[in-house]
Amino acid sequence: MHPLTPYLLGRPHPGGRRLVDVQRCLRTTDLDEVGDRTHLTVFQMLGSWSLGDYDIATSLRWGFDLLTDGYGIAPGRLHATVFGGDDRLGPDETARDTWTALGVPVEALGDDNWWSNGPTGPCGPDSEIFVWTGDGPPASTPSVDERWVEVWNHVQMRYHRHPDGRLTPLPRSSIDTGMGLERLEMVLRGDRSVFTGDGLSLWVGAVRDRWGLRGADLRVVADHLRSAVVVLGDGVRPGNTGRGYVLRRLLRRALTVLWRDDPAPSLGELPTTLYADTLRRFRQPVDPGALPGLLGDEERRFRGLLRRGRPLVERVRARGPLTERDYHWLHDTHGLPRDLVDGLLAEAG
User: Fold this and answer.
1) Given 3-state DSSP classes, what are the helix, strand and coil percentages for the chain, each rounded to the nearest 5?
2) Residue ranges in the chain modelled with pLDDT below 50
3) Which pLDDT tens digit goes with each residue over 94-120?
4) Residues 6+ apart with CB under 8 A from 128
5) Which of 146, 151, 140, 138 lies closest to 71, judged by CA?
6) For a FRET experiment, which of 12, 95, 302, 340 has its CA 20 to 30 Å from that of 187?
7) Contact, 176 vs 47, CB < 8 A?
């Protein structure tokens, strides 16, 4: 979405005022939630935009028609959330009334239904569409029952947030929608986990069969390794800053879980067919044969860091609970990030 910011602010787009695309997305804001049945670090986002063209009511009606008439999801399995207002703006009555007219239950929320492009820039209320994935008839509401799974978000880009927090109307209102392909596949299959889908089941099977992981540990390792392959496919290499650090963190989080009970497993045991399948799905024209060596190099670096880090952490821990100063010293002097230190602490009991 970020490259579209100039066009949301009013610049004419060469492709017109109605756009659609499929893009690979990496989200680190949900990293701690990965391990449940619906969150992924890397996924494919189905996006659509109205750059000053149709309004939110039209977008929601079209979205309802696609999900029900197009994909065959029963209307009774849908629930929507809308922006309920705050101390600056009133509730999103247009979105609420549109859903009500369509017969879809609506829940009004606060910050969860406000989308921003960062601390400043385009922002506005959004409406999220959820699908019921539980047994029996739908119950409760999305904010309190995790069996409601969000599949599609419709954002109204109506305001510009300034550095001082002021909101001023944009020259024109635009719509930005996003729907995760893996979640859509999950609900259309009638499954309860994104990890049963075509793009993830191969990773789940390979990790489970080789290393015996189960539950959340299995999902974390499968997700992070698959995500690392996609990031490598975009030309990123492990490093200590920026994108390289994101990649390094993903790999080391996966290895920390993998080695929790047994330090013997190696990423070299994974078949290259996994890499090839993932690169193909994310449309990355990269030789999969080059990736095992890159992962192996990072694995060896991490093993060395663990050998050096364990006695350091144990020495600091012997003085008592770690302080913020201890964490900073371990990171700045010895290159041990907080999540790795916490993993070593948990390992030591």
Assistant:
1) 50, 20, 30
2) none
3) 999 999 999 999 999 999 999 987 889
4) 80, 81, 112, 113, 142, 150, 152, 153, 154
5) 151
6) 95
7) yes
Instruction: Give the three-state DSSP class for 135.
Output: coil
Q: Indicate the DSSP class of residue 269.
A: G
CA of 252: how far to CAs of 71, 132, 301, in Å? 39, 35, 10
β-sheet bridge partners, residue 114: 125
Question: On the CB side of 238, how many CA atoms lie within 13 Å of its CA?
Answer: 19
Predicted local distance difference test score (pLDDT) of residue 349: 62
How many other CB atoms are there within 10 angstroms of residue 119's CB atom?
10
Model pLDDT, residue 336: 81
**Predicted TM-score of the model (pTM):** 0.90
The CATH code that applies to domain 2-194 is 3.30.930.10
43-63 pLDDT tens trace: 999 999 999 999 999 999 999
Q: Where are the domains of the chain?
A: 2-194, 197-348
